[in-house]
Specification:
By secondary structure, this protein is α+β, with helices and mostly antiparallel strands. The chain is built from six helices and 22 strands. Strand 9 (119-126) and strand 10 form a beta hairpin. It is globular and about 60 Å long.
Length: 352
């Protein structure tokens, strides 16, 4: 299965999804970019390998859970009908009629984000009830257990009460959901790998801004470093765990991979060894503490950290006392925290 989350906030609608896929093929790597063991689950292997976010048109996107082959057929037709200008209702009805009938043994669920004349819209569809297309404010699909699912909704509800800038909300929610796999074995739920997202707004489909992740123990060292960014609807992930760079495309993407690499290969090599990332997410592997630094100026030094790459997956990270205090902040022992995580957001301003 998988885990996908969608929600509306302000004038936007958002989608995030994990990148694990389940199948009979042996994993190409022993561990995911976030150091999760690619394990056998109920006779099949789960590994980080698939982007489940699909651009349908200029202001429409979808994510899915369930049978990948059936979802691919559905989304291919849905994408084509959306490009023709059909409404989601008409396009999805047509796609379901073409691909169905559906069975309970191979279910599919979709979350569809759209920004139209009436503003943001989020629709939920399940193959078990193909005639029912529901408009929702928050939607979840996949195999996540109840505890994490309830927590996601609680955290999202609390975040949406604040006056958070729309572009900043996506990496915050992605970071919170990313911690699930750090603290629990989500591979056993057929979930894992990078959690990434996109925003659909009046500007169109906007991918999550370039994000760096650091996983750290109580001693802060050693650190695990993961970078993620999207270019032309392909997500690139570089990890110090695997000492490798992976590119994830969705099963509906019509881009020729050879052409994509021809365009972006040189850029990828330079970008993964740069500091030009908007968001820097620090996740404690020992305690449920998340610290997010947003850099205002990507070309300037900031007051919180400095990063130097040494090659072969190695790097040197200098941390300021202010950031160190945030990383080691305890969870409220009296249980006064609204949710069982400590989340801190810092604005990284240039120092020159």
């Amino acid at each position: 299965m998988t885990y996908c989350l969608g929600w509306k906030y302000g004038g936007s609608v958002y989608l995030i999804a994990d990148s694990a896929a389940t199948g009979f093929a042996h994993p190409h790597a022993a561990r995911s970019s976030f150091d999760e063991l690619h394990d056998s689950v109920r006779g099949e292997f789960v590994q980080e390998s698939l982007l489940k976010l699909v651009r349908l048109s200029d202001k429409r996107a979808a994510t899915y859970s369930g049978d990948v082959a059936i979802a691919t057929d559905l989304l291919s037709i849905l994408k084509q009908r959306c490009e023709y200008g059909d409404s989601i209702q008409i396009a999805l009805t047509s796609a379901a009629a073409s691909v169905g009938p559906f069975t309970s043994e191979r279910p599919v669920s979709l979350l569809i984000a759209e920004h139209g004349e009436q503003g943001p819209s989020l629709k939920l569809w399940h193959s078990v009830q193909p005639g029912d297309i529901s408009e929702v404010a928050i939607g979840e699909i996949g195999s996540l257990q109840t505890y994490h699912s309830d927590f996601a909704k609680t955290a999202l509800s609390l975040l949406c009460r604040g006056n958070i800038e729309e572009r900043r909300l996506l990496p915050i929610v992605s970071a919170v959901v990313q911690t699930y796999g750090v603290h629990d074995n989500l591979i056993q739920q057929n979930i894992g790998g990078l959690i990434f997202g996109l925003q659909v707004c009046s500007e169109g489909v906007v991918w999550q801004e370039d994000t760096n992740y650091f996983l750290y123990p109580d001693t802060i060292s050693p650190l695990t470093y993961v970078s993620a960014f999207a270019r032309d609807d392909v997500v690139v992930v570089n990890s110090s765990v695997t000492n490798a760079t992976s590119c994830f495309s969705n099963s509906v993407n019509t881009v020729e991979i050879s052409e994509w690499f021809g365009k972006w290969d040189g850029y990828i090599q330079s970008h993964i060894n740069s500091n030009n990332y908007r968001y820097w997410v620090f996740i404690s592997s020992a305690r449920k503490v998340i610290t997010i630094v947003r850099l205002e100026d990507l070309t300037a030094d900031n007051q919180y950290f400095s990063l130097t790459f040494q090659g072969n997956g190695k790097f040197d990270l200098g941390i300021s006392p202010t950031l160190r205090d945030a990383l080691l902040a305890p969870i409220d022992p009296q249980g006064h925290d609204a949710i069982p995580f400590r989340l801190k957001f810092l604005n990284g301003k240039p120092t020159r």
